[in-house]
Write a structure and sequence with these properties.
single chain; 3-stranded antiparallel β-sheet; two-stranded antiparallel ribbon; about 10% strand
Length: about 180
């Protein structure tokens, strides 16, 4: 039991500071946090697991788009992100880190692939290639679901939110719905 707990708490044990490792390549926690901080003001529904999911699959989806002749450049990614920003906050002029630009590249590539005439074949190929990736996700940021899709993190049942209302005498406190610091 001690070994299992240590393995869970270590997350991506072979890559300290990694939010995920994809085919041996780490995605640093700092990249995930930077992208989330830069994108969240303009995409309110952005979550750590959604941003991490995009960072996990971006190289694969971008490579597929390039192979199909519809790849997107960093300039295309910046233009996409600028359009998202302008839609929400016309006066804002943020700059984006390489991690955020990777998110933009993912959306450009995915959109370009979605517009191809053989959409069913492309969709099946995307699903297969992503499922074939060797992905390890740090449990702090998400869980790995079917076909290597990153799902929201599941807080350990032993965490109790200290700000939660105190239970009546004799009852066990309920686990918190989200991880506590």
């Amino acid at each position: 039991m001690v070994l299992a707990t240590a393995a869970v708490l270590a997350g991506c044990a072979g890559q300290p500071g990694a939010a995920a490792v994809v085919d041996g390549t780490p995605i640093p926690t700092s990249d995930l946090q930077t992208a989330l901080d830069e994108i969240k003001p303009y995409v309110p529904g952005a979550t750590p697991s959604a941003v991490l999911g995009a960072l996990v699959v971006e190289p694969t989806v971008s490579a597929m788009a390039a192979e199909a002749g519809v790849g997107g450049s960093d300039e295309d990614a910046k233009a996409y992100l600028d359009a998202v920003v302008k839609n929400v906050s016309p006066e804002a002029h943020p700059t984006f880190s390489p991690a955020s630009i990777a998110i933009g590249r993912y959306f450009v590539a995915f959109t370009n692939l979605s517009n191809l005439s053989n959409q069913n074949v492309v969709s099946d190929d995307i699903t297969k290639r992503i499922a074939d990736l060797d992905v390890e996700v740090n449990p702090r940021f998400g869980t790995l679901g079917e076909d290597n899709k990153v799902a929201p993190a599941v807080p350990p049942t032993w965490l109790v939110d200290p700000s939660a209302p105190k239970p009546a005498d004799g009852q066990t406190p309920a686990p918190s719905p989200s991880a506590t610091p």
